[in-house]
Write a structure and sequence with these properties.
Helices cover 34% and strands 24% of the residues. A five-stranded mixed beta sheet has the order 1-7-6-4-5, sandwiched between helices. A four-stranded mixed beta sheet has the order 8-13-12-11, sandwiched between helices. It has a two-stranded antiparallel ribbon with strand order 2-3. It has two domains: 3-180, Thiolase/Chalcone synthase (Peroxisomal Thiolase, Chain A, domain 1, 3-Layer(aba) Sandwich); 188-338, 3-Layer(aba) Sandwich (Peroxisomal Thiolase, Chain A, domain 1), CATH 3.40.47.10. The protein has helices at 5-8, 30-34, 41-48, 62-77, 101-109, 125-138, 162-165, 217-221, 231-253, 270-280, 291-294, 301-311, and strands at residues 12-22, 27-29, 52-54, 86-90, 115-119, 144-152, 170-181, 188-196, 204-205, 228-229, 262-265, 320-327, 331-338. 51% of the residues are buried. It has 339 residues and is an alpha/beta fold. The two termini are 15 Å apart. Bound molecules: coenzyme A. Coenzyme A binds at residues 39, 43-44, 47-48, 123, 162-163, 166-167, 204, 229, 231-232, 234-235, 238, 268-269, 296, 327.
């Protein structure tokens, strides 16, 4: 297996030095949803693979979830908040429109004055952020970057829309990405790919609440401040975007599907994951999933899954992992690393 020449020629590599996650204890089951909208446990399980999601208590915000995931990742990396050189938070459910959730997190962690900013790329946000961090590390700019995916999506879900309200849950996942010297055998990020297509902005959106459609009573009453989704369109595009982004990342790394030990795919819908597996001829046993217990946590989805699969011993140091996501935008991203 060869690293691509693009990666091999840089002096510094980026490796994951710690991973952590946090899920609120309150849960919303399919049975709970049966009492809220016209749906059934069987329908939801069959069409999505989801049985329950976690819900952030009303006393907490996205940065509170991010804090717990970040503390767990820092502990695994054996680093303190003072060691961090930058914080990137991927979220579409920030604490406030202004300032960034990364700044709230920075204050809660008690970091030095360092760069901290949010990335808005919906469910691809965590991998976009990883890919940005990867480039900062390779350029030699920073030593340790905290990358967090954190969401309180249940605050943005329309619980009168049975098609979309069944999908989303809250949670946070975090990784510390650290600088290391180039080596073909050591743990490192091998290739990254981030793309978007603005031709699909209307199929998954929250339309009201910013400059295009400022909040008005009428728009709130029409629930335009909540998630609107064209499910079938999103499904079709998701499969296509995921397939193409995975192939591009594999190509950049000079790898094939067979070279990858584990595929961590955004937990949006089990049927989307199965369709991608079929198209790319990935054995389904190589695609761990926690969607049944967690639902779609947008940018938090991949780092939560990664953290859980490290904890239960599935993911081991030295293995090759491909992570891939898609989301509103449409955005799509993939990262391949040797863990
Ligand atoms: N319970 C029961 N019936 C439901 C339902 C629910 N929760 N939601 C929709 N239905 C109904 C529809 O009204 C429709 O009924 P009709 O045939 O009488 O009109 C029927 O089920 C089929 O609807 P359809 O939208 O075609 O279902 P689907 O198989 O596409 O499944 C989704 C709907 C949302 C599960 C699916 O489209 C999906 O997962 N899309 C991707 C969404 C996603 O991943 N978003 C996040 C991206 S990051």
């Amino acid at each position: 297996m060869n690293l691509s020449s693009e990666i091999a020629r840089t002096a510094f590599q980026a490796r994951i030095s710690g991973v952590g996650s946090y899920l609120p204890t309150i849960t919303l089951t399919n049975s709970d949803l049966e009492r809220m909208v016209d749906t059934s446990n069987e329908w939801i399980l069959e069409r999505t693979g989801i049985q329950k999601r976690h819900v952030c208590p009303s006393s907490e915000t996205t940065s509170d979830l991010a804090l717990r995931a970040a503390q767990a990742a820092l502990s695994k990396a054996q680093l303190s908040p003072q060691d961090l050189d930058a914080i990137i938070v991927a979220t579409v459910t920030p604490d406030q429109p202004l300032p960034s959730t990364a700044c709230f997190l920075q204050a809660k962690l008690g970091c030095r004055q360092i760069m901290a900013f949010d990335v808005v790329a919906a469910c691809s946000g965590f991998l976009y952020s990883m890919n940005i961090a990867h480039d900062f590390i390779r350029a030699g700019t920073y030593r340790h970057i905290l990358v967090v995916g954190a969401e309180t999506l249940t605050r943005m879900v329309n619980y009168q829309d049975r098609q979309s309200c069944i999908l989303f849950g809250d949670g946070a996942g975090a990784v510390v990405i650290s600088k290391t010297q180039s080596s073909e055998s050591s743990s490192c990020i091998m290739s990254s790919q981030s793309v978007s297509s603005g031709a699909f902005t209307d199929i998954l959106q929250v339309s009201a609440g910013a400059s295009r459609f400022p909040v008005t009573i009428e728009r709130l009453e029409a629930r335009q401040n909540l998630i609107e989704m064209q499910g079938r369109e999103v499904f079709k595009s998701a499969v296509q975007f995921l397939r193409d982004t995975c192939l591009e990342a594999l190509n950049k790394a000079g790898l094939t599907v067979e070279d990858v030990d584990w595929f961590l795919i955004h937990q949006a819908n089990l049927r989307i994951i199965e369709a991608v597996a079929k198209q790319l001829k990935i054995p389904i046993e190589k695609i761990p999933s926690n969607i049944r217990e967690v639902g779609n946590t947008s940018s938090a989805s991949i780092p939560i899954l990664m953290s859980e699969k490290i904890e239960d011993g599935t993911l081991q140091r030295g293995q090759v992992i491909l992570m891939a996501a898609f989301g509103a935008g449409l955005t799509s991203a993939a990262t391949i690393l040797r863990y």
